[in-house]
Amino acid sequence: RRPKNFPPGPPVWPILGNILDLSLENPLKDFERLKKTYGNVYRVILADYGSSWKEQRRFALMNLRNFGMGKDSMEERIHGEIQYTVDTLEKSIGKSFSPQNMFHNAASNIICQVLFGKRFEYQDETMKTLVQCFTENAKIANGPWAMVIRSFTFQLTMYILDLHFAGTDTTSNTLLTGFLYLMNYPQVQERCQQEIDMVLEGKDQASSEDRNNMPYVQAVIHEFQRVANTVPLSVFHCTTKDTELNGYSIPKGTLIIPNLTSVLNEEGQWKFPNEFNPENFLNDQGEFVKPEAFMPFSAGPRMCLGEGLARMELFLFTVTLLRKFKFIWPEDAGEPDFTPVYGVTLTPKPYRMKVQLRVSQKIPNL
Ligand code: HEM
After folding, report:
1. How confident is the model at residue 155 (pLDDT cuts 50, 70, 90)?
2. Which atom of ligand 1 is nearest to the CA of 235?
3. 3-state secondary structure (DSSP) of residue 267
4. Most buried residue, 30, 114, 170, 340, by most Cβ within 10 Å?
5. Comparing 69-78, 219-228, 264-273, which segment has the lowest mean pLDDT?
6. Which residues hold heme (predicted)?
């Protein structure tokens, strides 16, 4: 009973379909019926705008805050995790290797520490399965059947999956994209390293506050996010009342698909919309500026609630790794392919990297 366009996925989907007597030909109809039967969707990302979503969002923010989002303790946790990434990279010096799992595991562990109070070793089987499931699901989750699966009320389980997914795939794919570009734009990498060495001279490690003294690094990280375009269609929304926008009438209940890709690449909004160029975020004086069109976290009341955590992770990972290592595109890797693989999140095509320890007298304890 697998319909023609059924996305590849675990056999549990057709089995569930049979149990629930779904038509399997019209997921939207099934979705509406299931919603009526099983009530509201008690999650964060996909919850309808209303009291349940408000409660879940408050709960999520409270948890993240209690566990230190935006505070020193979260910074320490991130640095703790970076140390494992550094160890992994040190073991790979001189070899060409794939960084995919390394960044996914690192981002996953940071959110796991908030959700489960523990991290997992990179070789841990649970961790490997979890990361693999999320990576695969990000590719199939905008298929019609995903809507049906989402309509079940598993409460807390779905909430944890939401936060884990939202906090892992997004951050790791941004880092993967960033390092892909850094290897292929060595002059950008070197300029970041000069700024990092200068600002962190004599310090053991970077802190979020150092962002203010690193306009170039800030510009580069924002440019990672712009070109990575990690969540190209954001999350689908729906008008909660009849709406007028730029002369168009949009009736209540219309599906709205935000197109973040178009904003992040729009002619007229960026100095260099179609190339990787940190100048997009620098003014004539070399100061960091953030154009209004920079909205990888979307906008409005539903905008990403993990923005603060994500920005902290991107900064601390980039700075710490660039301070210690030089990242090199392997000689036998051929021409880089920057075309992403489509899904709910965009992923760079799998690639390999090489690292060298940087010879710098200015790194005290690393
Ligand atoms: C570079 C990293 C990230 C990017 C680009 C990103 C992007 C987004 C986008 C575009 C949305 C949809 C907003 C909308 O519906 O209009 C979103 C929602 C969300 N994000 Fe993120 N995100 C990132 C990291 C994180 C992290 C680390 C967390 C973990 C705490 C997180 C948690 C969430 C949650 C819970 C929502 C749903 C908010 C709601 O519906 O009220 N995100 N994110």
Report:
1. confident
2. 15
3. strand
4. 170
5. 69-78
6. 304
CATH assignment of the domain containing 79? 1.10.630.10
For residue 31, give both structure tokens: 């979705």
Total domains present in the chain: 1
Q: Which atom of ligand 1 is nearest to the CA of 228?
A: 5
Q: Which of 172-181, 217-226, 336-345 has the lowest mean pLDDT?
A: 336-345
Q: Residue 143 corresponds to which tokens in the numbers above?
A: 């298929």
Please report whether residue 213 resides in a domain.
yes
Answer yes or no: is 304 a known binding residue.
yes
Which residues, 6 or more positions from 199, have their beta carbon under 8 angstroms from its beta carbon? 210, 213, 214
pTM listed for this prediction:
0.82
What per-residue confidence (pLDDT) applies to 120? Answer: 83
In a domain, 17, yes or no: no
Question: In terms of residue numbers, what domain contains 121?
Answer: 23-357
pLDDT digits (tens, 9 = 90+) for 331-347: 999 999 999 998 778 99
What's the mean per-residue pLDDT of the chain?
Answer: 81
Asked whether residue 275 is assigned to any structural domain, the reply reads: yes
| Helix count and strand count (H, E) for the chain | 12, 8
Establish if 8 belongs to a structural domain. no
Long-range contacts of 119-123 (CB under 8 A, 24+ apart): 119/81, 122/84, 122/88
Best of 57, 237, 302, 304 for a ligand 1 pocket test (most atoms within 8 Å of beta carbon) = 304
Q: In sequence order, what DSSP letters do the residues of 24-43 get, joined into one string?
A: SS-HHHHHHHHHHHH-S---
